[in-house]
Amino acid sequence: MYHKGTSAREVPPTEKAPSLEAIVQALGQLSPGDLRVVGDAVAALHKAPIDSHLFLVDFWGIKLERNEAGDWVGTMPITPQILNPLQIVHGGASYTLADTVMGWAVWQQYEARKAVVTVEIKMTYLAPGRGKELRAETKILRAGATLAYTECRIQDDRGRLVAAATGTYYTWDPSAALPD
To answer: Is the pTM of this model over 0.85?
Structure first.
């Protein structure tokens, strides 16, 4: 957990980092599937360390691109890491996909010259997330001086609408402090 006054990599004084020996011992007790997840996490850490703020995006394999209409689209493979006990996509994973794509679209709208944070998201789950991949298409409905309003539709790889979201994002000049 991040604490004010420490870097993302430092272990706060109240937490003790596990020894390499303890990590190796724990790895030896994992199933092959769990070891694959550990490997995915290590690969994501090499690509985007936790302190780069993109670890979860890389760990879950979220990809961002523009579609023919110029809107932003995000895809996320459906893997065991994002399934709930019913073996369907966990709502938090769909939410993260929507938030990532909508926030990215807003950031790009301002040509990466503004900082962007989520103010609110309304998410409606319409069908179980199944298949090989989720696809989130985002449109910016309004982009003002400090607020942007977006919508996102998430479909499975068969084209079935799985979830819909709207989001409001606050933007500001990144050279200024984030308001309280």
So the answer is: no
